[in-house]
C-alpha cells in the first residue's frame, strides 16, 4: 500500500485531499499546526507539529513514499498583501525543511502546492488579461512575498530533484474555493468572504466589495483541485503546472452569482477601498490538458451553490 504524507492536512485543501486519498485506498499521515476545525481528520495517522522545525519534518516524512506539501502560512488578498516578513519566513522554513527531509529519507515523489501568485505583476495589469502560461513565470516579478517564496520553493525542487533520487512537481493553483474553507477571521478569500456577507445580509441591504469590482480572476472548485493534484502526483510531470479554471470573471460577476444563489432580493454591491491584488489573472490550461488529460469541469454556479449552502449553514446555525 502506498504511504502518503499530507502536510497542512487540517487546512482547506489538505482536509479534502486526505479524504480523496483515503477513498483511493492510500495509507495517509496528516500533519498540521492545528486540528481540523470542522471534524476529525480522515487520515490513518494525524498529529500536530510545527513544520518550520527540521526535526518535525524528518519525523513527518518517515516511511512515506509520496509527499503532498500543502502546509503554509496563507490567506486571501487581505492577508497576503499586509503580511510579508513573517509569512516569507515561515513558508521558506516549512518548504526547505520538508523538502530536505523528504529527499534525505527515501521519499519517491514530492508535490509542492505553488500558486498563481508567482506570476509577474507586469503581466497582470489589465482586467481583460491574457491567460498565464507556465512559461510566463520569468523574468520574475511576483507582487507579494507570498509569491516570491513559492517561486523560491519551486526553484528548490529543481535543485533537489537534480541531486537526489526523488521526483518533484509543483501545482500552481488559481483561487480554490469550496466548503470547509476559511470564511471569516481575515484569511478568507473573495468567494468565501462574499458568500458570508450575502448569507448575513437581509433583503435590501448592501454587500461590501473591495475596489471597483472590475478586477478579474478565475475560480476553481475544490473537488477539481484535488483531482488535479492527484493526477499530477500520478503523472511523470516535473515542470510546474497550472491547476485552475480558465473562466475569467470580474469580482462583481462573482458577487452577482452568489446573490442569485442566495435568493435574496435587492442586495446591492457597495464598492469600498480595499486590497485588490493584481488587476486581472487567468489560467492557461493548455499544458494541464496535455499532461493530465483532464481539466476542471465544475461550473462556477454549481461550485458556488455548494459553497454558499455550507457557509450559510455555518453563519446562520442552520
Ligand atoms: P489553509 O490555510 O487552509 O491550509 C494550510 C494549512 O497549513 C493550515 O491548516 C495551517 O495550520 C497549516 N500550517 C501553517 N503553518 C504550519 C506549520 N508551521 N507547520 C504545520 N502546518 C502549518 O490553506 P489552503 O487553501 O488549504 O492551501 C493549501 C496550500 O495550497 C498552501 O500551500 C497554499 O499556499 C496553496 N494554495 C492555495 C490556494 C487557494 O486558493 N486556497 C491557491 C494557491 C495555492
What does it look like?
This protein is an alpha/beta fold and 318 residues long. The termini are far apart. The longest helix has 20 residues, at 85-104. It has helices at residues 12-23, 54-61, 77-80, 85-104, 145-163, 190-200, 222-234, 251-262, 286-292, 300-315, and strands at 3-7, 27-32, 45-48, 66-69, 109-115, 167-173, 176-177, 206-210, 216-217, 220-221, 241-243, 249-250, 268-272. Helices cover 38% and strands 17% of the residues. The strands form 4 sheets. Strands 3-2-1-4-5-6-11 form a 7-stranded parallel beta sheet, sandwiched between helices. The chain is globular, with a radius of gyration of 19 Å. Helix 1 (12-23) packs across helix 7 and helix 2 (54-61) packs across helix 4. The site of nicotinamide-adenine-dinucleotide has 26 residues, from helix 1, helix 4 and strand 5.
Properties at a glance:
318 residues; 17% strand; seven-stranded parallel beta sheet; two-stranded parallel sheet; 13 strands; binds nicotinamide-adenine-dinucleotide; alpha/beta; 38% helix
